[in-house]
Hints:
The protein is an alpha/beta fold. The chain contains 11 helices and 14 strands. The protein has helices at residues 73-80, 98-103, 122-130, 139-145, 161-173, 191-205, 218-224, 242-249, 263-267, 289-299, 313-321, and strands at residues 35-44, 47-57, 62-66, 88-93, 107-110, 179-183, 210-215, 227-232, 235-240, 252-257, 272-278, 281-286, 304-310, 326-327. The radius of gyration is 23 Å and the shape is elongated. The model is unreliable at 1-29 and 324-329 (pLDDT under 50).
Amino acid sequence: MTDRVTAATGVADSARPDVERRVPTDGPAKETVGVRLDGVRKSFGAVRAVDGIDLTVCPGETVALLGPNGAGKSTTIDMILGLLAPDSGSIAVFGTTPHAAVRRGAIGAMLQTGSLLRDLTVRELLAMMASLYPRHMAVDDVLELMGIRAIAQQRTERLSGGQVQRVRAALALLPDPELLVLDEPTVALDVESRRAFWQSIRDFAAQGRTVVFATHYLDEADSYADRVVVLSRGRIVADGPANEIRAMAGMRTIRATIPEADDARLAALPGVRMVERRGSAVVLRCADSDAAIRAVLAVYPDAKDIEISSAGLEEAFLYLTGDGRHAGP
């Protein structure tokens, strides 16, 4: 039977006597590299999902994989977990293969989709899954960490969507993993639930654990990651702290209300790199905002409500991934 990480529980199918056991320690393993990907490629038919990724994650880092749909985030995560094998290149997790890391309980994972076993209370489910591991967090500690103690006696089939997500995260934390991997973990959560979820993950990471998460929420990457890795079309186009990612764009933003503005004409103005519509306003991403604003006012003297600001993470993301509605010269 092949070891795997399940989307339903985030735990490994490792409860067999012949499987390597994780030796209890006083904390996470001391390795100089947590996750390493070297020249990793993966295709599905004619589609190149991951195209030569080189990535190193140090122990204790929280790293966000940020990118649009189809950028390669989930495929990269599946390969880190050993659910997919790369076509070429190599992957190591704490100095060993993904499969070996899963077998010893070093990885906890919460994937995009999955369900919970029915006819059990939350506490019963956690206790049953904890029994699969020779080393695990106390059930009460996991309940407290994820803020789900109040629903511990509820049956899993009666939980709301947001509660299910938090229980799935609790299951991923059970083996007290050195590496926690999350794939779009807050899609089903409202704003307040997202904030509470990330506070729990931040508390876990504060214990020196390594966290890698995929998201398309820019605010999550900006607020909760030490590093942001931007992917586009299967490649890494930027890697660094959020403030460095913003600086990579090297742009400023002009926002204005311009009656009867023509997007193509705006995109052709000096200094303008991208044009975007937001309601009645036009947003210009500019490499040279001084030249751009002079050109805008020369062509559209009736422009009003003009605001000029430095690029945020969203602007940098759009610039780096080439996801602009209209691109200038």
